[in-house]
Amino acid sequence: MEINCPECNTTYDIPKSKLPKLKPGFNAVAKCRQCGSRIVFSLDLIKEEEESSDEVPVDEFVPESDREPESDRESEPAQFSDGAEAAALLTESDSITDDLAAVIVKNRAKYLAKFEKFNYEGIERFAITWHWPAFFLNFWWFLYRKLYLWALIAFVSLWVPGLNFISVILFGISGNYLYFKHAQKKIYALHAFDPSANISNELARIGGVNRWVLVLGVVISGIAVVGIIAAIILPILASR
Questions:
Q1: Is residue 104 classed as helix, strand or coil in its secondary structure?
Q2: Integer Cα distance of 204 and 30 in angstroms
Q3: CA-CA distance, 180 to 200, in Å (whole number)?
Q4: What pairing do the DSSP bridges indicate for beta strands 11-13 and 79-80?
Q5: Tens digit of pLDDT for each residue in 35-64?
Q6: Measuring CA to CA, which residue among 51, 46, 49, 54 is closest to residue 30?
Q7: Which sign does the torsion angle of CA 42, 45, 47, 50 carry?
Q8: Where are the domains of the chain?
Q9: What is the pTM of this model?
Q10: Who's near 144: CB < 8 A, 6+ residues apart?
Q11: Distance, CA of 175 to CA of 127 (rounded, Å)
Q12: What is the spatial distance between Cα 73 and Cα 56, in angstroms, rounded to a whole number?
């Protein structure tokens, strides 16, 4: 399979056995060994290659004496048809699925299964899914998952009469998609900053969860419970 770098037009001849195994809706990303740009392998592209793999090149039917001299042919970009070179290229490739998993950290399998719904035949789209933590905890869940802007929006919406009920429904429906877009943004930003870097550790650092949110939530809940009990018991004691 031949694939070209979109920036420097270097062509890589990838053996069929070295093609990445992709899930529907996800692509694999490799780094060009010439300029460091990203090269995307889509599932559709690989399927097309598999379907045409049995076709014999046209040159096979042309007698050697009738073939166009190499010097008369149009110049072509540099070729890397060596198997070792192609294998090295794919060894460096970072699957988008792996990058998403690095951002999620906790409950990866559950979220990756939801994220697959946002790609239809390679085209990204919004799809309705349901997320109970975003519905019940909204502000706290956004804060826990480091979606700070959405945490602020959720906090403000809860204090607006009429909007609070609508917002919790919307957060339940769109929570998975909002998290998917958040993770994508982090991944693309790091790839753009340094295409040749291994970003897994950095994704895990800026992704993951805020454990302190759990502690803060427990403390505030405890204070609220104590306050409710005090509000019930103190008037009774005062009346005696």
A1: helix
A2: 20
A3: 17
A4: parallel
A5: 767 677 665 666 665 555 554 444 444 444
A6: 46
A7: negative
A8: 2-92, 98-209
A9: 0.61
A10: 137, 209, 210, 213, 214
A11: 11
A12: 21
